[in-house]
Amino acid sequence: MNLSLKPLARALDVLCPMHLHLDAEGRILHAGPTLEKLCDAPLVGQAFASVFQIERPRAIRSVAQMMQTGGQKLHLRLQAAPHTGLKGALAPHPLGQGALMDLSFGISILDAVRDFRLTSADFAPTDLTIEMLYLVEAKSAAMDASRSLNARLQDAMMRAEEQAYTDALTGLKNRRAFDQMLAHILGAQQDFTLMHLDLDFFKQVNDTLGHAAGDHVLQEVARVMQEETRGDDIVARVGGDEFILIFPGLVNRKRLSDVAQRLIARIEVPIPFEDQIARISASGGLVRSVDYAAPDADRLIGDADAALYASKEAGRGRYTFHLDLPMQKAS
User: How confident is residue 162, by pLDDT bands cut at 50, 70 and 90?
Assistant: First the structure.
């Protein structure tokens, strides 16, 4: 470059960091620093047409024609990937040394910032692009904060909903959750068995060993029930020492008897608490949906309750199918 042109080039690098100085044949004599960054290679000495493609006006077919445009807006594209779109305008060099072209990204600015990792230092200090970049960054930060807040709110809502349907002491489903799940399974017309289980001698534990011991017993019973049931079975604590279990798809009496016997046997195992032993048993009542022409929640729960108290009257520590009670007929 002519030494007399260097001060002007340095000034243009600051004021127009995306400018080009072209000679009369369209060869690049100087390029602003941002353009050099885009192309990731020295531009000086390269032919304009080897770096940029003229897209509009379509009448311009050559660099020679382009050099005659005199301030007309040009639509260009980088020849190399990612083929970023640019807008430019050409003017004669003030010292009669070819032409100057100033370029900008136009609507491609956001893609360019992302693709080339541009910052405010890559633009002229007065370029409104900087203001837009600040707005984009502010919007991005706001969106990130909004997404984070929404995620926290969603997590809090899920935790609150889970707490609303969970028994705080045992971690089992509570009565509210049980009612909804029973309604759902009845609506799906799926075969199932409902078992009402009540602890025997639990009051004595509270009276003799204290409520802390009673809470510990309830937690141990809940653990046993979860271990002895399947993943899709429903186990709910519906009262102080009352539990209801739902076994979806399980109506085979032999298998149900095996489950009930295992549950009762494990619940009867003495439960250590501090330096004392708590002893309880359990009584159960079972109803199967297939034993009813049109099962409904109130009827099922009432019949399971009746079978449960039949077990207690028969000596506790046992289970009874409601259909086995005298004078029972499904309806």
Answer: low
Q: Domain 175-324, what architecture?
A: 2-Layer Sandwich (3.30)
Q: How many CB atoms lie within 10 A of CB 310?
A: 19
Q: How many CA atoms lie within 13 A of 117 on its CB side?
A: 2
Q: Taking 90 as the threshold, does the pLDDT of residue 301 lie above it?
A: yes
Q: How far apart are CA 244 and CA 179, in angstroms?
A: 10
Q: Which residues are the active-site residues?
A: 241
Domain boundaries, the chain: 3-126, 175-324
**Tokens encoding 143:** 């969106």
The pLDDT of 133-141, averaged and rounded, is: 63
Residue with tokens 């009448």: 59
- Write the DSSP assignment of 161-205 as a string of letters: HHHHTB-TTT-SB-HHHHHHHHHHHHHTT--EEEEEEEEESHHHH
Whether omega for the bond prior to residue 82 falls within 30 degrees of 0, making it cis, is: yes
In the prediction, which pLDDT does 46 show? 86
Burial state string for 317-331 with b = 16 or more CB within 10 A and e = fewer than 16: bbbbbbbeeeeeebe
**HSE on the CB side for 305, CA within 13 Å?**
9
For residues 240 and 203, the answer to whether their CB atoms sit within 8 Å is: no
Residue located via tokens 């009762």: 264
- Please choose, from the candidates 17, 28, 33, the residue with its C-alpha nearest in 3D space to the C-alpha of residue 51: 28
Pairing of strands 271-273, 319-321: unpaired
CATH architecture of 3-126: 2-Layer Sandwich (3.30)
Q: Please check the confidence at residue 101 and state whether its pLDDT lies above 90.
A: no
Enter the tokens of residue 203.
């009051």
Band of pLDDT at residue 260, cut at 50, 70 and 90? very high
Mean pLDDT of the 211-232 span: 95
Helix, strand, coil share of the chain (percent; to 5) = 45, 20, 30
Contacts (Cβ under 8 Å, ≥6 apart) of 58: none
